[in-house]
Specification:
Distance between the termini: 12 Å
Order of helices and strands: EEHHEE
Helix content: 25-40%
Strand order of the largest sheet: 1-3-4-2
């Protein structure tokens, strides 16, 4: 399955549009992660635990759109858009949503 943020894929011709596909992943940020991230904010540096959660959520959302595209008979998804949000009380949940167009390419 080819996944692309661009509206086309170089070297491939789109032969059929199968429709819009979406995927979401919502993950809780646990208390220990929050504590260590707060410390990291004070002393500086990257919050690796949050980065890992965001990467995991992004991978889940992309896997969902790839699976939905397969069910539609597509072999690629183009025009992928990724959105990141903190939701829940006090931003305790991290959400990644992905959408794109499922297509058949050569």
């Amino acid at each position: 399955m080819l996944l692309s943020t661009t509206p086309s894929i170089d070297g491939h011709t789109i032969h059929e549009y199968k429709g819009v596909v979406t995927g979401e992943a919502i993950l809780g940020a646990n208390v220990f992660r929050d504590l260590f991230a707060s410390i990291r904010d004070i002393v500086g540096g990257r919050a690796a635990s949050y980065e890992k959660v965001l990467k995991d959520a992004r991978d889940m959302a992309l896997a969902e759109i790839a699976e939905e595209a397969r069910r539609l008979g597509a072999n690629a998804v183009v025009g992928i858009d990724l959105d990141y949000e903190a939701i829940g009380s006090g931003g305790s949940m991290l959400m990644v949503s992905a959408s794109g167009t499922a297509v058949v390419v050569d």
